[in-house]
Every structure is written in structure tokens, then in C-alpha cells.
Amino acid sequence: MPDQSWVGRVLDPAGPYQVGREQVRQFATAIGDDDPLFHDLDAARAAGHADLVAPPTFPTCFTMPVIERFLRDPAFGWDYTRMVHGDQRITYRRPILAGDELMTVIHVDELRTRAGNHMLTLRCEVTDTADEPVATTVSLLVTAAGEEDA
User: Fold this and answer.
1) Percent of residues in the chain assigned helix, strand, coil, to nearest 5
2) pTM: predicted TM-score of the whole model, two decimal places
3) What's the rounded Cα separation, in Å, for the pair 93 and 16?
4) Is it the case that residue 81 has pLDDT exceeding 90?
């Protein structure tokens, strides 16, 4: 089992991640969302935004790679090969826009074992480069306990 001493730790900031217009458009297309705010700069500006608006689940593009690097660190002891994504929540302080430069800080909030599964809750605080809050993501990740944990 991963070491419980990780609970409560705050990892070093990752980023900045530059949000590009084409990334926003491609992500929206990939999830099948044709909302003009995600594709048409004139529509986004007419709605009062400075640039294209990213779809609500867009933070997965830049937070999940940061989470993956952490989980693959042997010092943490997580079995990434057995992992499934149990839950995801995203809370916004403001919309993510094309042109934003975003930083991600992982907080290790909880680690528990139930019914032969390790359950890890990671919170990512997303800020802009001026350290203004943009969004918070909370991920519940689950992996089967290995024989060494039995």
C-alpha cells in the first residue's frame, strides 16, 4: 500500500500550461460539443469573453498528465497498472479561456483501503500565472491491492 505519510502533502507546482485556441476547439470536437463559445471567437467575444471558452472537462488535458507523473513515482508506491478512475469533480472560479497560462498544484487529500482496493483522493488547485484561482479538480482513483498488501 502507498505510504500514508503522503496524505496532507502538497506537491510542487506544475506548469505553466498554455491553453491554445486549437486545443479548445479540438477538445470540444472530441467530446462532441458544438457550442459556439468553444469554436467561434466572435461568438465567445459577443458573450463577453476575451477568447474561446474551454469546455467544462477541459482541465483533464493538463491535470491528468501531472497526476500520472506523481502516481508513477516509485516513491509513492501506487500500482498504476491496476488503476481505474472512480470519480471526478471540477469547480470553477472563472472560465478557462484560450490564452490562459495555468499552474497545477496537487494536494494528496486522502488514502484509504476498502474491500481490497486502495482509494486515493487527489485535489488539483489550478491558478493562473498571477496566482489567481481558476478551478479545483478532485479525482478519486482506485487500484486493486496487490498480494504484498494482503
Assistant:
1) 25, 35, 35
2) 0.91
3) 18
4) no
